[in-house]
Every structure is written in structure tokens, then in C-alpha cells.
Design brief:
Blueprint lengths: L1 E2 L5 H9 L3 E4 L11 H12 L6 E7 L1 H4 L4 E2 L4 E3 L17 E6 L1 H12 L1 E3 L15 E7 L14 E4 L1 H5 L7 E3 L11 H9 L5 H15 L5 E5 L4 H11 L8 H12 L5 H14 L8 H11 L14 H9 L1 H17 L13 H11 L4 H4 L3 H19 L8 H14 L6 H10 L8 H8 L7 H9 L9 E5 L8 H6 L7 H8 L5 E5 H7 L4 H8 L3 H10 L12 H19 L22 H6 L23 H8 L8 E6 L2 E7 L5 E3 L2 E3 L2 H9 L6 H4 L9 H4 L3
Parallel strand pairs: 2-6, 3-11, 5-7
Antiparallel strand pairs: 1-11, 2-4, 3-6, 7-8, 8-9, 8-10, 12-13, 14-15, 15-16, 16-17
């Protein structure tokens, strides 16, 4: 490897422009494009005369050039339609130079001096071109740095309109224009005079910019002439251990691309990731997940992202079976999309892998997603119910993920017929990842806040009659805008309840799934007012309310606490049944509802939903309680606890108290809690705590020790 004479930035960019300098397929994507500030800091370093690191070039002779895949440098990066480098077609053999180290820096120079960036504006539609304004690199000729400023030259990516609208204290000069200045004397003076820039700083900045690009030998590089791919890969891995770290999928993708023979792995995988994420209503899957899925589905023994596992033999298997992997992932994503999940509601992307593995093994295609065949509907129902439970139970997709995926892969491979949910759950339980739910976890789920990704999973589990294949929003039943402290004060609600109501408005018992159109129309209306407007037919209205467990909706916020507790208790009973049900008992959500004597489609859809017992109804279950905290209520009934008994707990040296109220609810200073865990979390501010071990009787006995006596 030889150290070469440094060259200027202008000369380097000319070689990039003529495709003399190219990127080998083993290079990753341009990641600096997502960090414009990092790009501008590079230009600041250049103008300050700081070294910007050495570069590593790979000299490829003409006779070897067509044995490898190469890509052009990024010039006009666009977040919507141009995030991937364009492939170079070498019709004829020719000598070229491939960049092994320095792509991010050279791409930054190329974009800053020849191209542009276009990022999505926040809050704008992702598929609208207007949401991606094209920006160019500018430098402020009048910027005077302070003593504590981290940068000496102010660079920024702006639209031309933004640059022109700058106040008189700024003068944005488009950096690419410096390439058209033939000297750093008269032409710079002419520009200064033409724009009436009397500041000496303006001349200094423009002069320094010209010299940095045209004269300074800023590009210091080594040149590798060895043509062995294994050696080049080794060098590539070594030199890319610093800077912006290669992700594991970047490395795998690099090696796969270099070793695939039947297709271009880079293009195939990028295209698949883009199309999976474009599946309505939209996802954000990564190359990591796609490549991990490929390793699992093709039965490659070791699926760890380690360089030694990506052998030519393994890559040949992945190459050969790629079409089936591609199909399985597309079908699996369409399937979970039909369940209503999206980027904002899918809390663990890894749940996709076993589902895709099942699709791959059974050789299922798109017809499986919407088939009306009884077996297909039943199979989908089992997959959906397992998926929801696997997303709701903490810890399933965290530690030892590779071992879990391999174990589930073997079960799916050995299965016959439907999705092997019993065997899968038995294996998960064997690995300490049981999908059983206890009372305490159900209480935690009932406290799920509006912004949690698992909120949708809970609501679609509780109210599975809703066809979430269309656009549905998680909507507040009582709008948060009507529950501000000022609004509560105006309605005469005691101040001691304000914080509690504000908190409860954001939690599961005050949330529902509404079609996008209904959600937009409802906005800040009180729920009873909206329902009376939405459903003119009393039968349709009652059926819809029953389907959402919305009984006796109060006309004002003043009665919200009672409504909240009743609906929370109803949800508790539903979750206890749904999360404990056996796979054989799961009914298909595609079953048709019986015909009703009225025509409202929403009412017909909910007619088959079992009606939860309302307060005052006769008890139909052994432990169907309303208006009371279930376990503590039973402990009161058995005499183990008494109303008014005070409990205590210690956290970080502070002593906390709560008191047992009627019905088994815990209370303290005007606040009421449904469970020991809820009380501990709310009073101490901890994210996670076991309330049954935290709270103790006056004699120091944890109340959890009394549970076994109930």
C-alpha cells in the first residue's frame, strides 16, 4: 500500500464527476445525509485548515474492473426518491479507483459543491414532493464567530428562497459558485463590490473558500493495488471500525453484494426494504431485520451478525432462495398490515420473523391475506392473537433474540398444518419468555397511555369486531382539550381531582378506535354529544356503544371518574378472558355477524360481541366485580385487610404511605389507585415496581404474602 501525493478538492471532484472514482458494492449507504450539521462541520474544518483524515483508494486495473459491482457517488440526495447510489454499468473494461475509506467525506464534498439535499418537512405528507424542499450549501460571508463558538465559518443547507430572504446582517453565498471563479483576486473583489459587502470578513471568507477548494492539497490518500477480494474486505472492515460505525446489516449487505452471483444483493435488499415500508399504512423496517429474516428463513445455521458467518456458501444459499424470502416477507407484512398494525403501532419488528418464516415454509402467497376460506380465516385469527399477545408481554423480543428465532424456526419447520402456536408458546415458556398474563400485568396494561405503541394492540384485541384494514385512529373518548385544569375548575370539579382526571384521560379506559373520518369530525366534542349526532337510529347507537363498552356516557366531565372506573373494570374482565384463552378457543375475526333488523353496518358488525355486564346486572362469573379493586377487594372480604388500614413503602430513603379504601381501592391525599403497583408507580415516580412487595403492613409484612391466602 503506497502513500500518494495529496490532491485538491477540485481535482478530486472532477474525477468523481467523470466516474474515475467510484464506490465498491461493499460500501454502505450515505449516512451523513441524515446529519446536515456533520456535513457543514466538515466544510468548517476545511476552511480552518484542519486535516480531514486520510483516504484509502483501491486501484482496479481494466482487466479486473468488470468482476466487481460499482456505484456512483451521491450528488443530489432526496429522502423520498433518491436515497440510494446509482449503479455504474461498465460496458467496456477500464481502469478505475474504488474508495475503500472516505465515502462519507467525499460524498459531502460532492453534494456541497455540486449537488443538494432534500429532507421531509415535519408534519407534511410523506408521499408529497412539496414536503421535500431542495436545499443547497451556503456560507455566510458576514458571520463573525465569538470566542466560545465551536465553528469559525457558518455553513448551512438552504433553499434559494431562504438564502434571499435573509436579513441584512447575513449574506449567504452559494458554495458551488466558487467553482466558477477562476482566481481569488479580481473576481472576488468584483463580487464584493457588486453586492456592496464592505466587511473585510466577507473577502476573507470568500478568499479562504476559493483557496481551500482550488489550491490546498486537502485530500491525502493511500492506494491499495492488491486485487484479492478477501484482502480488500479485510482492509475495508479494519478501516471502517472508526467514524460512523458500520451497522451489522451494512457489513452483511456489503459482503453479500460482493459474493452474490445471481443478482445484485444491494439493489434487491434496498428495493425490498423500501417496498415493505411503503405497504399501507406504512412501516419502518430496516435492512437488519430483512437480512436477519433471510438468514433464518433459509435455514443458515448461525444467524449472528458476525463476519465469519457470512461465508461464500451461506451467501450462495441466500442468493439461491432470495425470491422465496422476498415473497414471504412481502406477504407477512401485508398480513400484519391487514391486522391494522403500522410503524406507529408495531412495538417489536422482530415479531415479523416467525410470521414470515411460517409463510415461507407453507409457501403462502398474497391470497392467504384476504382468503375467505374457513381454514385460512382460522389460521389468520390464530396468528393475529399470538402476535398481539407477543407484543403485549414485555421481554419476548429482547434478550437472546437470535436463539429464540432459531428455536421458533425449527418448530415452524417441523410443523404441519396451521400456525403451531401451542408449540411456539411452550418453547418460549421453556426459555423464560412465557406468554401467560397475571393480574398485576393486566393492571399495568390497563394503565397504558395514549402514546404507547401497545395501545393499538390492546384496543384491537378488546374490540376485534372493528375492521382495522381501513384507516383507524386511537381517539380520546373524553377529549384531552376538555380536561385541562382551567376547564375542570370552570366545571366545578374539586382541585384535588384535577391531576387524577388529567392522567386518566390519557389512559386506556378513555381510549377507543375510530375511523379516520369520524375521528376528524369528533375532535373536541363531548362523547355523548358526538354519539347522538353520529347515530340517529337508537338501535344502531346502542349497539355501537355496547361494542365499545361505552355505557351510560355522562353528559359532562364532572362524572368522568365514575365512567372511567366502570369502563376500566369492564376492560379488565375482557382482558382476563382474552389473554388467558387457549388457541383452540380463538374465533376468527372474519366470522359474519348475524343479520339485524336495522341496516347500520357498524351495529351489525358488533352484534356478535358478547355484552359486558353492566353495574347492577346479576353476576355471571365467579369473580366479575365492578366498582372495586378485585384482589384487594377479596382480601377485604376474607378479613386479611381492613378499610382504613395504612400501608407503607420505602424508596431511596423516603417513606411513602397509602390507605386501603372501600372496595379495595388504595388512596392517598385525594388520589385513588386501582392496584398496589399503580399506587407505587404514581406516588414514587418509578417506571417499574412490584407493588405487592413494595407496600407493607405496619408490622413490615409485604401485602404480597397475604395474596396466597385468598
Amino acid at each position: 500500500m503506497a502513500y500518494k501525493t495529496p490532491i485538491t478538492i477540485k481535482e478530486t471532484l472532477e474525477r468523481i464527476g467523470s466516474n474515475e472514482y467510484l464506490l465498491p458494492a461493499i460500501q454502505r449507504e450515505l449516512v451523513w445525509a441524515q446529519e446536515p450539521e456533520r456535513m457543514t462541520r466538515l466544510f468548517d474544518s476545511i476552511l480552518r485548515g484542519y486535516p480531514i483524515g486520510t483516504f484509502l483508494f483501491w486501484s482496479v486495473p481494466a482487466e479486473q474492473s468488470q468482476q466487481f459491482t460499482f456505484y456512483e457517488f451521491m450528488r443530489e440526495w432526496h429522502e423520498l426518491n433518491h436515497r440510494h447510489n446509482d449503479r455504474v454499468s461498465l460496458d467496456q473494461p477500464r481502469a478505475l479507483t474504488a474508495i475503500l475509506d472516505g465515502q462519507q467525506r467525499l460524498s459531502t464534498l460532492n453534494i456541497g459543491l455540486h449537488g443538494s439535499l432534500a429532507h421531509k418537512l415535519p408534519g407534511r405528507r410523506a408521499n408529497s414532493l412539496e414536503a421535500y424542499p431542495v436545499k443547497y450549501l451556503y456560507v455566510d460571508l458576514l458571520y463573525e464567530p465569538g470566542e466560545d463558538d465551536d465553528v469559525q465559518y457558518s455553513f448551512s443547507f438552504l433553499t434559494p428562497a431562504q438564502a434571499e430572504a435573509a436579513p441584512e446582517t447575513l449574506h449567504w453565498y452559494r458554495v458551488s459558485d466558487v467553482l466558477h471563479l477562476s482566481d481569488n483576486g479580481p473576481e472576488i473583489f468584483a463580487y464584493i463590490q457588486r453586492h456592496d459587502l464592505t466587511s473585510q470578513r466577507a473577502f476573507h471568507v470568500l478568499n479562504r473558500l476559493w483557496r481551500s477548494i482550488h489550491e490546498d492539497p486537502a485530500i491525502n490518500y493511500f492506494e491499495e493495488r492488491e486485487q484479492s477480494l478477501s484482502r480488500v474486505l479485510d482492509i475495508f472492515v479494519r478501516v471502517n471500525s472508526g467514524g460512523v460505525q458500520l451497522t451489522k446489516s451494512d457489513l452483511l449487505l456489503s459482503i453479500a453484494t460482493a459474493q452474490f452471483t445471481g443478482r445484485d444483493a444491494r439493489e434487491e435488499i434496498h428495493a425490498l426494504v423500501d417496498e415493505l415500508n411503503a405497504t399501507w399504512p406504512g412501516f419502518r423496517f430496516t435492512k437488519d431485520l430483512v437480512l436477519k429474516s433471510g438468514l433464518v428463513l433459509t435455514d443458515i445455521g448461525n444467524i449472528n451478525f458476525a463476519v465469519g458467518n457470512f461465508t461464500a456458501n451461506n451467501m450462495a444459499v441466500l442468493d439461491q432462495k432470495w425470491d422465496d424470502v422476498d415473497r414471504a416477507l412481502r406477504v407477512a407484512v401485508k398480513l400484519i398490515a391487514s391486522f391494522g398494525f403500522s410503524e406507529s403501532t408495531l412495538s417489536a419488528d422482530s415479531v415479523l420473523v416467525p410470521i414470515a418464516d411460517y409463510v415461507f415454509t407453507r409457501k403462502l402467497d398474497d391470497t392467504f391475506v384476504h382468503s375467505t376460506d374457513e381454514n385460512a380465516r382460522a389460521d389468520r385469527a390464530v396468528i393475529r392473537h399470538w402476535m398481539i399477545r407477543a407484543l403485549l408481554k414485555p421481554g419476548i423480543w429482547g434478550s437472546a433474540l437470535n436463539q429464540v428465532l432459531r428455536a421458533l424456526h425449527q418448530i415452524i419447520r417441523d410443523s404441519h398444518g396451521r400456525f403451531p402456536v401451542e408449540a411456539i408458546e411452550a418453547e418460549l415458556a421453556r426459555r423464560g419468555k412465557s406468554l401467560t398474563f397475571d393480574t398485576e400485568l393486566i393492571e399495568d396494561l390497563l394503565d397504558t397511555p395514549h402514546r404507547s405503541k401497545r395501545t393499538f394492540a390492546l384496543l384491537t384485541l378488546l374490540y376485534d369486531w372493528i375492521d382495522v384494514r381501513s384507516e383507524f385512529h386511537v381517539n380520546h373518548i373524553f377529549p384531552r382539550s376538555l380536561a385541562t385544569r382551567a376547564k375542570q375548575r370552570d366545571q366545578g370539579i374539586p382541585e384535588g381531582q384535577w391531576d387524577k382526571i388529567t392522567d386518566q384521560v390519557e389512559r386506556l379506559a378513555n381510549l377507543q378506535l375510530l375511523p379516520g373520518a369520524d375521528s376528524a369530525k369528533k375532535q373536541a366534542q363531548l362523547p355523548l354529544e358526538w354519539v347522538l349526532t353520529r347515530f340517529s337510529d337508537p338501535q344502531a347507537r346502542d349497539a355501537w356503544l355496547a361494542g365499545h363498552d361505552l355505557y351510560d356516557l355522562p353528559p359532562t366531565l364532572a362524572d368522568f371518574p365514575t365512567f372511567y372506573e366502570i369502563r376500566r373494570a369492564t376492560m379488565r374482565e375482557r382482558l382476563r378472558h382474552l389473554l388467558g384463552v387457549q388457541a383452540s378457543e380463538i374465533r376468527s375475526t372474519a366470522e359474519a355477524a348475524p343479520a339485524l333488523p336495522f341496516s347500520d353496518p357498524v351495529a351489525q358488525a358488533v352484534a356478535h360481541v358478547p355484552r359486558p355486564r353492566r353495574p347492577g346486572d346479576p353476576q355471571t362469573g365467579s369473580r366479575a366485580f365492578y366498582g372495586r379493586a378485585e384482589v384487594l377487594g377479596e382480601m377485604l372480604d376474607s378479613g386479611l385487610l381492613e378499610v382504613g388500614m395504612r400501608l407503607y413503602g420505602v424508596y431511596r430513603g423516603d417513606r411513602y404511605h397509602t390507605e386501603i379504601g372501600p372496595g379495595g381501592f388504595l388512596r392517598w391525599q385525594g388520589r385513588t389507585f386501582d392496584s398496589p403497583t399503580q399506587a407505587a408507580i404514581r406516588l414514587t415516580g418509578q417506571r417499574s415496581v412490584n407493588g405487592w412487595t413494595f407496600w407493607k403492613l405496619p408490622d413490615g409484612t409485604p401485602i404480597g404474602e397475604l395474596r396466597s391466602r385468598v
